[in-house]
Specification:
By secondary structure, this protein is of the alpha/beta class. It has one domain: Aldolase class I (TIM Barrel, Alpha-Beta Barrel), CATH 3.20.20.70. It is 31% helix and 23% strand. Helix 1 packs parallel to helix 2 and helix 2 runs parallel beside helix 3. The radius of gyration is 17 Å and the shape is globular. It starts with a strand and ends with a helix. It binds iron/sulfur cluster (SF4). The site of iron/sulfur cluster has 10 residues, from loops.
């Protein structure tokens, strides 16, 4: 598999914020968000990668990607045996870019009842269908063109969210907000969440994540903008929390 790193860290976003996870960061993404803080994970190509030997020590073993699935699974096992973790995060890049192999990896990683979380941009629906039996959590981004500069189809994101919810996975949605967030785009995204929050989707949570300046993005929304967007969301849907990227505030990876 094309991978950039495997390590133990503190989850800094959304519903599992503060939980200790093992992160498997896979290479390749099918879109390009302006604020992306993982530029080294965007291209689906061979290259250097690193595996942490001791949880949280950053004592990296340097290797060349692609790696066999068994090597990645073994690295996760080593970290888990040294420290109990809450769960394993499959992140990227977009993990579903390697759908067949990520399904095989998830099957191995979930052995013994370990919980697997998928961090995803919510665009590759058929790839999600392959992997759902091995997942516990799905953290899905809803993309706003006015913030990330991408043109992700709303209908694709609707089908992705529907697939995750109908599979019985614990699912939440994250919207990154910025200083130039378009109100109409924002309302449509929040309305999509509200539309899904019935039946098996009851309890669906929405997280607003103020953008962290990086790359081409130079400013975060100001406090008044964050409050205004939170209020705007709450008028459409009641279960909305604002959670910034806390791992960056405490100097984590
Ligand atoms: S979906 Fe994620 S990995 Fe892909 S470009 Fe956007 S922020 Fe980066």
């Amino acid at each position: 598999m094309l991978v950039t790193e495997v390590f133990s860290a503190i989850q800094g976003e959304a519903a599992l914020v503060g939980e200790r996870q093992i992160f498997v960061r896979l290479a390749g993404c099918n879109i390009r968000c302006s604020y992306c803080d993982q530029p080294e994970a965007l291209e689906r190509r061979p290259g250097p990668c690193r595996i942490e030997r001791t949880p949280g020590r950053r004592d990296w073993q340097l290797l060349e990607s692609p790696l066999p699935i068994s090597t990645i699974a073994g690295a996760v096992d080593d970290l888990w045996e040294q420290l109990p973790h809450h769960s394993i995060s499959l992140t990227g890049g977009e993990p579903l870019m390697q759908a067949v192999r990520v399904a095989q990896l998830a099957e191995q990683l979930s052995a013994g009842g370990r919980a697997i979380m998928l961090e995803t941009n919510g665009t590759l629906v058929s790839a999600l269908e392959r992997i759902v039996p091995c997942l516990t959590y799905v953290s899905m981004d809803l993309k706003l063109a006015s913030v990330d500069g991408t043109r992700v189809a709303g209908d694709t994101q609707r089908r992705f969210l529907r697939t995750s919810i109908d599979a019985g996975l614990t699912t939440w949605v994250k919207i990154v907000i910025g200083p130039s967030t378009d109100g109409d785009q924002f309302d449509r995204a929040v309305s999509l969440v509200a539309e899904m929050a019935h039946g098996p989707g009851a309890g669906l949570e929405l997280f607003l994540q103020p953008v962290t300046p990086f790359g081409a993005v130079h400013s975060a929304p100001n406090p008044e903008q964050v409050l205004a967007l939170h209020e705007r969301a709450l008028r459409i849907y009641p279960r909305v929390r604002v959670v910034p990227q806390t791992h960056k505030a405490i100097g984590q990876l």
